[in-house]
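agent: user wants the structure for Ubiquitin-like-conjugating enzyme ATG10 from Exophiala xenobiotica. delegating to structure tool.
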Amino acid sequence: MAFLETFPSISDAEFQAGCKALENRGFDRLNGTDWLSVRWSGEELLIKERRQITNSNSNPTREENNDGYEELENEDDVEERSDNPDIMLRHNDVDPDSLVIHFSITLSPTYRVPVLWFWCQQAVALNLEQIYDFLVPRTSQEPLRSVGVMGGISMAHHPISDQPAYFIHPCNTPEALSVLKPNKSFTPEDYLMLWLGLIGSSVGLHIPSKLFDA
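agent: tool returned. relaying tokens verbatim.
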């Protein structure tokens, strides 16, 4: 496999090669992992994961009453939540044991780096606070909320499906990758794994160790 020509950017052909390599790596190695599938569609790399949810995934600073509703801090919060039905979702509307999360990796035509999109397979969509509670590790919450080196979590229409999805903004990804680059050349697969380690980990997405087995 050829090396990247213009790190930290990646070309369309290099992105396709890296995604195909990761798909091939996971072909017969997903049993016993959290990944349910990994597939290159020709336009995006699709990863489906089952995520176990424990109390440690929840933000301990947020309180709920006995009915499962979050305590509202002030009248402005009450008004905002009453105007937005998505914010009125209850935590017990979500399967307390696990979530099926769909990840989509596309290539940004502007920044020339991969972009991580994600949504959960639930009867009701998760709001942004639930995304932070259930998907984002505590160590990543402050950097994401403050739009740090990894950018923030936003919602937009997916560039391929045109369906609403959350994504991590790629504006700071090139700089973050440049900081992490070791003194060696990268194949497209190396690049994608480095990127997943940086961006994927911010929402708890990790490459299963079985994919590295010989």
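agent: one observation worth passing along. Strands lie at 35-40, 45-52, 98-107, 114-120, 153-157, 164-168.
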